[in-house]
Amino acid sequence: MSEYKWQNITILNSRNLRLDGLFYTREEPAAITLIVCHGFTGSKEGGGKAIEMAEHFAQFNIETLLFDFAGNGKSEGNFSEISLSNHIDDLKWVVNWCRQIKSGPVITVGRSFGGCAAIAHAATDTNIDGVCTWATPAELRPLFWGLAVEDPMESSLVHLENEEGTVLLKSEFFHDIAHYNLTEAVARISPRPLLFIHGTEDETVPPDDAKKLYDAANDPKMLRYIPKAEHRFQDTYQDVWSVCLEWLNLHFQ
What we know:
Elements: E1 5-12, E2 18-25, E3 32-37, H1 49-57, E4 62-67, H2 84-101, E5 106-111, H3 113-122, E6 130-134, H4 140-147, E7 157-162, E8 165-170, H5 172-177, H6 182-186, E9 194-199, H7 208-216, E10 221-226, H8 237-251
Parallel strand pairs: 3-4, 3-5, 5-6, 6-9, 9-10
Antiparallel strand pairs: 1-2, 2-4, 7-8
Helix pairs in contact: 2-3
């Protein structure tokens, strides 16, 4: 059996922007392929934790594809022009690329805002076999309006302040998320399995948002709270991995 190795990949989206990716794979077919969607202002490496997760999951014959959404990390594009619609489009092209070379189950794993993209994408794209979200909001408007310095309806450029500092977004971002109802979208993913993971001490996204998504979803579904975990799961990420592996083994191995 060949060893797992990291491959640098580039995927073109519909806006002709190159998405930068890393694929931890091997020559023999893997049991499962995970596509990881990073969070708001994040990147595919996840500060090194996503790399570590991929290498850990490979022990269980699971390969992992990490990528940067357009405007993030090493992908082309301007961060100020990101939107949920663009994230969904990026994910669509990443999934299509993966499906061209893989025949086994493909699962999306979305962290925070990346989980919103994973839910909204799977609601309309049957190329995905399951969805797992980490610390993902159920209601976008109160979250992002609460971070905005200017009124998004009156300013063309809006500053958002979060724990990482200040970022600049075009007001179209706010108009775009108004078109999405994640509780309605998550209800359309069944019968494909869903897993919702949230920290009990999440200071950014209320822990009750996971329950809202879970209640709106149809079976098969699972909700797990990680005790004492904050939004980034800094000290509890291995607990999250264990829950993910349990769920993957239940439904896909």
